[in-house]
């Protein structure tokens, strides 16, 4: 019996996460509801960070010296195709740019290698007061390796 790692895998591209489409993910036509892709992409980003050693709880607990949080500043999606119930999607995530307090990530939802949705998201690292904080060297280094 083959078991898939729950958090996905790190790849040359960046990160891949398998996501099964369930009934709850679909609209009345049986197609994945557009907003679900935002959730699928969030899982991809979160698990990418987790596998790089920076999960949200550890960041909140001060893993990098003080409580820190990633917040979404900008999100744009392009729809190229549709998924339906029981499809197994691959969510790909890669970092395009790291600058100041920002990470800009490209993401895709693929079905059997075919791009269904592509997106670009900017997340900002903030402290407990919501003030932007420069990406720490330890974090930057983990994304470069």
Topology overview:
Layout lengths: L8 E2 L4 E6 L13 H18 L4 H5 L7 E12 L8 E12 L2 E10 L2 E14 L9 H8 L1
Antiparallel strand pairs: 1-2, 2-4, 3-6, 4-5, 5-6
Q: Strand content of the residues, in percent?
A: 35-45%
Report mean pLDDT, rounded to a whole number. Answer: 94
Estimate percent helicity: 10-25%
Low-confidence stretches: none
Structural domain count: 1
Shape descriptor = elongated
Largest sheet: 6 strands, antiparallel
The CATH superfamily is identified as Hotdog Thioesterase
Secondary structure tally: strands:
6
Structural class: alpha+beta
Q: What is the spatial order of strands in the main beta sheet?
A: 1-2-4-5-6-3
Tell me what the CATH architecture is: Roll
Integer-rounded radius of gyration: 16 Å
């Amino acid at each position: 019996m083959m078991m898939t790692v729950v958090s996905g895998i790190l790849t040359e591209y960046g990160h891949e996460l398998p996501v099964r489409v369930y009934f709850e993910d679909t609209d009345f036509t049986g197609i994945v509801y557009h907003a679900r892709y935002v959730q699928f992409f969030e899982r991809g980003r979160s698990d990418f960070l987790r596998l790089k050693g920076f999960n949200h709880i550890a960041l909140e607990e001060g893993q990098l010296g003080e409580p820190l949080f990633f917040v979404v500043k900008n999100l744009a999606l392009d729809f190229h195709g549709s998924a339906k119930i029981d499809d197994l999607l691959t969510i790909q995530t890669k970092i395009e740019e790291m600058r100041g307090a920002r990470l800009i990530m490209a993401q895709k939802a693929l079905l059997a290698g075919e791009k269904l949705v592509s997106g670009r998201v900017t997340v900002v690292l903030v402290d407990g007061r919501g003030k932007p904080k420069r990406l720490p060297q330890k974090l930057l280094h983990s994304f470069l390796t």
